[in-house]
Write a structure and sequence with these properties.
This protein is an alpha/beta fold and 853 residues long. It is built from 17 helices and 37 strands. The strands form nine sheets. A seven-stranded parallel beta sheet has the order 8-10-7-12-13-14-15, sandwiched between helices.
Length: 853
């Protein structure tokens, strides 16, 4: 049925997509046992050894295909992850720079916002080495003279060791047409043809008036006048990226030394093995700070292991949060031991491109940053540059103190939530302040604001051997100096908070099976419209579509747990059970609104107000696992599942259905504790319904918990025919795949894929510019009244209500109910219909739309 669609995010740094040639050899990372002969292993696989990891028994091999069994002497074998540096857009500057301790652009507005000049009076980063893993740096650039120390080229002239990943789409736009013009015409020293385009309108203000030492006359010109300055898109992501980042480091931490480590070629291509190797090299060669202005959507094991190695050696790692304007985690920024950095502008407003949520520990300016560029200077925007700024801050702090760096960065950040109400709690601890950081360095600093749930540094989930009792787990945590947040009954695990340096004590415990980062989880957010107070009850279009409730089919006698942001406990259209749970302590009352909207579609009463749900006589149980920002973690989700596990048959009516309109990026095996908790409910016959997500560029296998075979993954469709103002596109019909929905064909053997689709919006409107916007479905609003919302968060509770009515009819067994749901669906084999959205691809199945009995 619906869709894999790739969104092109313009005017920012972004990740490129990768493709793999099935006919080509594959590259794998092989870990060998002691004294194993890697050459013999490679020969047995018909492959060759491409590279090795010093002192780590890990090798990069090229082999024809992945073997079905591991050869003797091989402990593990994983595919190498291809990486591409972010593509960026920026403006060229025609300016003359000179070498010296401080580049001329060091007093630009973005740096002044952080009090950079005053901070330099207290610390210049002397004695600190910052390793930057990036593309090639212009080592002869005047702005970098005296700021570089010996680095290493992990690519050389031959390019990356693997070419399994495509570089960037060169056909779309190149930074400059290299066939017709050199990047910088040295004969004229003019980066752009000034007769046709100037960076700023020179008639009103000079960009840098050297005669008056005025960096920018704000009264006569905006910092970047978009009407007069064109942005140039880089079709060669690697070229210039390393130089631009190094230029920022040199300006903000002028006495620190930059160790340039080239792990990407000029096209921006590299791989996880080279990045991991570079990280280890940096640690072994004296770096105290590592900057990673790069990212990828999966937590590549080799990079993760290398970062753990760095942190264990008291090296601070900083990484870019990503430029997709998404809460989906980007790695390595999302790793708990990494300082992930988002972008803000000069008004402390989140940059339009910046990611938020789990990947963000702090924010830093990232819009229109002036820096060095090969052969000249440029202005660029992206979290790559914000990451470099934060790395410089860490260097300034590290020059003064060797411990407490994470806490200093967090405690001295400026709270920007008042300027970002839509992203409150999702921009980490706030925007960094260099002066405050160096002023506090060496003192006892504490974070005065509660950290957002998305970035609880030092949080981990520890899995013990089966049968390890809760007292024994707690004792192990105490010996390691860890604080226990949750000690579960549903699985032999606990959630802890512990400094990374103390983890080794737990790792040495023979009863510990694995220790994993406590990843952030997010509501599958929806677009909400304004609220209203209706004098009469409304039946949402989705409720009508799946089947309005009738006597004998209304969910009576069935408990439905709503794992979400809580429920409005005093809403007169909901009869919430008195037994509630909050993973955060205190009340289960909804302080976000998402949970109330979800609960309404399941269980809103059939009275005279608000709306009527699919199963109005079912009993909603409030299980709060997401905070006021719609954010939680794996540990809070497991805590909610744990409460259901221990109470499902102690409450009346029993809990038989769980709705989870939440999720995160991930894979089926990335947290065994999480999946085991879901399996425990599955074994009790409890049906777990999950909103698959609203990212059409990924599939079910990339979403947790949607990829778990034990859950019902639900995709979204339209209910009604929409309207169009576009002459090139017709109106979108009813029962079409929603333009945003994540998707994936259901595999009857593995049980992975979309179980069924259900309405997630009223309709879709094609705008006059031929774009698509959603018309949300009516549901309940926190505080009373109704609102409109769309997304798979809306689809899932409709199915949860249908399941409650199937159970009311006497149906039992999770797989039996799944089978009935699929076999009795509407329009099986016909719907969801194709979406006209550009980039739409049919996933191979039209599973139909859920229908209540």
């Amino acid at each position: 049925m619906s869709a894999k669609r790739l969104f092109l995010i313009l005017l920012v740094l972004m990740l490129a997509a990768f493709s793999m040639d099935a006919s080509a050899a594959i590259t794998v990372i092989v870990e060998t046992s002691k004294n194993a002969d890697i050459n013999s292993i490679a020969a047995s696989l018909g492959g060759t050894v491409l590279d090795s990891m010093p002192d780590d028994s890990k090798y990069l091999l090229s082999i024809p295909s992945m073997p079905s069994t591991l050869p003797s002497g091989v402990k593990s074998m994983t595919l190498d992850t291809p990486l591409v540096l972010p593509r960026f857009r920026g403006s060229a500057l025609s300016a003359t720079g000179s070498g010296g301790a401080l580049p001329w652009y060091a007093d630009q507005p973005a740096f002044n916002l952080m009090n950079a000049a005053s901070a330099r009076a207290k610390s210049t980063g002397r004695g600190v080495i910052i390793a930057d893993i990036n593309s090639q740096v212009d080592v002869s650039h005047p702005a970098l003279q005296g700021h570089l120390t010996t680095g290493r080229d992990f690519i050389g002239n031959s390019g990356p060791k693997t070419r399994t990943g495509a570089t960037l789409e060169q056909s779309t736009a190149s930074f400059l047409d290299q066939s017709t013009a050199s990047f910088l015409d040295q004969s004229t020293a003019s980066f752009l043809d000034q007769s046709t385009a100037s960076f700023l309108d020179q008639s009103t203000a000079s960009f840098l008036d050297q005669s008056t030492a005025s960096f920018l006359d704000q009264s006569t010109a905006s910092f970047l006048d978009q009407s007069t300055a064109s942005f140039l898109e880089s079709g060669s992501a690697g070229h210039g990226h390393g130089t631009m980042v190094a230029g920022i480091l040199a300006a903000l931490a002028p006495d620190a030394l930059i160790m340039p480590l080239r792990a990407f070629d000029d096209s921006g291509a590299g791989d996880a093995f080279q990045v991991g190797k570079a990280i280890r090299y940096a640690v072994r060669n004296g770096a105290q700070v590592i900057n990673l202005s790069l990212g990828f959507t999966s937590d590549a094991a080799e990079v993760s292991a290398a970062i753990d190695f760095a942190v264990a050696h008291n090296v601070v790692v900083i990484a870019a949060a990503g430029n997709s304007n998404s809460s989906e985690p980007q790695y390595p920024a999302a790793f708990p031991s990494v300082i992930g950095v988002g972008s803000t502008d000069l008004e402390d407003v989140k940059a339009s491109f910046s990611n938020y949520g789990q990947s963000v520990f702090v924010a830093a300016p990232g819009v229109n940053i002036i820096t060095a560029y090969p052969g000249g200077y440029a202005v660029g925007s992206g979290t790559s540059f914000s990451s470099a700024i934060a790395a410089a801050e860490v260097a300034l702090i590290r020059s003064l103190a060797t411990t407490g760096i994470y806490n200093t960065v967090a405690a001295t950040a400026v709270n920007v939530d008042p300027f970002n109400s839509a992203y409150a709690g999702q921009l980490g601890y706030g925007r960094i302040d260099l002066l405050a950081a160096v002023s506090a360095s060496g003192q006892t600093t504490s974070v005065t604001r509660q950290p957002p749930a998305s970035r609880n540094f030092g949080r981990h989930i520890v899995r013990f051997k089966a049968g390890t009792g809760k007292p024994d787990r707690a004792a192990a945590a105490a010996r390691a100096g860890a604080s226990v947040h949750f000690n579960y009954d549903i699985v032999d695990s606990m959630a802890i908070e512990v400094p990374p340096s103390a983890l080794q004590g737990l790792l040495n415990n023979p009863n510990v099976m694995e220790i994993l980062p406590d990843r952030g989880v997010f509501s599958t957010g929806f677009a909400a419209g304004g609220g209203s107070q209706s004098s009469t009850q409304v039946t949402p279009s989705g409720v009508t579509a799946v089947g309005a409730p009738v006597t004998g089919s209304d969910g009576s006698g069935v408990g439905v747990a709503i794992l979400d942001t809580g429920i409005d406990l005093v809403n007169s259209d909901l009869a919430v059970a008195s037994q509630t749970y909050s993973a955060f302590g205190g009340s289960c009352n909804d302080d976000n609104g998402h949970g109330t909207a979800v609960a309404g579609l399941v269980s809103a009463l059939n009275n005279t107000i608000g709306i009527v749900g699919v199963a109005p006589n079912s009993k909603p149980y409030c299980v709060k696992v997401l905070d006021s920002t719609g954010t939680g973690t794996d540990s809070t989700i497991i805590a909610g599942l744990n409460w259901i596990y221990t109470n499902w048959n102690l409450v009346t009516p029993n809990i038989k259905v769980v709705n989870m309109s939440l999720g995160r990026a991930g894979t089926i095996n990335d947290n065994s504790s999480y999946r085991t908790a879901v399996q425990q409910l599955y074994n009790l016959g409890i049906v777990v319904v999950n909103a698959v997500g609203n990212d059409a560029s990924v599939g079910v296998p990339s979403r947790v918990p949607a990829t778990y075979p034990e859950v019902f993954a639900i995709a979204s469709t339209t209910v009604l025919k929409g309207t169009t103002s576009c002459k090139l596109k017709p109106a979108i019909i009813a029962n079409a795949a929603s333009w945003y929905t994540t998707d994936g064909k259901f595999d009857p053997t593995t049980k992975i894929g979309i179980t069924i689709s259900a309405p997630g919006e009223d309709s879709e409107t094609v705008t006059s510019t031929c774009g698509i916007s959603s018309v949300g479905m009516v549901t309940l609003q926190k505080g009373g009244g109704t609102m409109r919302a769309s997304g798979t968060s809306i689809s899932a509770p409709l199915v949860a209500g249908v399941v409650a009515r199937l159970i009311q009819k006497g149906n039992t067994g999770v797989e039996n109910i799944r089978s009935i749901l699929r076999s009795t669906a509407q329009l099986v084999g016909t719907a969801p219909y194709n979406s006209p959205y550009v980039g739409y691809t049919f996933d191979g199945e039209r599973e139909g739309i859920a229908k209540a009995p």
